[in-house]
Amino acid sequence: LTSVTTGNSVTTIGDYAFYDCDSLTSVTIGDRVTTIGDYAFYSCNSLTSIVVDINNSAYSNDSRGVLFNKNKTKLVRYPAGKTTG
Asked: Is 23 helix (H, G, I), strand (E, B) or coil?
């Protein structure tokens, strides 16, 4: 598994969903995901980019592929595989 795109009906990414998925490099989160569980992307050491649908009401990403809450006031996940800021 190298990339994941959530479907339109997905609202939750559960705890440990992709835990230790070492080949995962990119995640695309759809507009309906409102909950991302604890350790969902923990130990995904090749993950370099998380992209969130612009219409998502709970989450967003910056231009570097870092996951934040919608207002970018809380860092949710910095991709473990990123080697640059």
From this structure: coil
DSSP one-letter string for 26-59:
EEEE-TT--EE-TTTTTT-TT--EEEE-TT-SSE
Nearest to 6 by CA among 50, 68, 62: 50
**75-77: strand order across its sheet:** 59-61, 67-69, 75-77
**Average pLDDT of 7-25?**
96
Which residue is listed with tokens 């980019």?
Answer: 49
Q: How many other C-beta atoms lie within 10 A of the C-beta of residue 57?
A: 11
Q: What predicted TM-score, i.e. pTM, was given to this entire model?
A: 0.92
Residue with tokens 């570097």: 64
